[in-house]
Specification:
CATH architecture: Alpha-Beta Complex
CATH topology: Peptide Deformylase
Bound molecules: zinc ion
Oligomer: single chain
Structural class: alpha+beta
Number of helices: 3
CATH superfamily: Peptide deformylase
Low-confidence stretches: none
Shape: globular
Largest sheet: 5 strands, antiparallel
């Protein structure tokens, strides 16, 4: 089921999300809904607070495939690079954000098994962006520059 995406100004986006205690059917349903919502938007990532659920769950979909992570944490990061980002909760804005080039993230999958992901480039950026959502941080808080994508006469 596609869920409604919370927009900037909604307090749920600013609240630190709570760890998931047990990966049960309700959590798996939430993951399904998050993937469906992300694809419908369309977007490359979504964090549970963006669908109004203050839990530490993210999904991302990049060239490397779909990744679902519960209670994700960065265990290693290296390098710095600046690139453009946007966010489904901050429509019509884009900005340059500095992120680590490579990150190693660990978390639980939908079977509650621990997994590790070594990501770089765009996938690493998407992971860091979604992890920020779990701490109530939006990319506009980190942006070095911000562009308004409305009223540009795009056609
Ligand atoms: Zn976002």
């Amino acid at each position: 089921m596609v869920r409604e995406i919370a927009l900037v100004g909604d307090p749920v986006l600013r609240r630190p999300a709570q760890p998931v205690k047990k990966v049960n059917a309700a959590i798996r349903q939430l993951l399904d809904d998050m993937v469906e919502t992300m694809r419908a938007a369309p977007g490359v990532g979504l964090a549970a607070p963006q669908v109004g659920v203050s839990k530490r769950i993210i999904v991302i979909e990049t060239e490397e495939g779909l990744l679902e992570l519960i209670n994700p944490e960065v265990v290693r990061s290296s390098g710095r690079e600046v690139a453009m980002e946007g966010c489904l909760s901050v429509p019509n804005k884009a900005g340059e954000v500095e992120r680590a080039t490579q990150v190693t993230v660990t978390g639980l999958d939908r079977q509650e098994r621990r997994i590790w992901v070594e990501a770089q480039g765009f996938q690493a950026r998407a992971l860091q962006h979604e992890l920020d959502h779990l701490d109530g941080i939006l990319f506009i808080d980190r942006a070095l520059s911000l562009q308004d994508l409305t009223d540009e006469g795009e056609d």
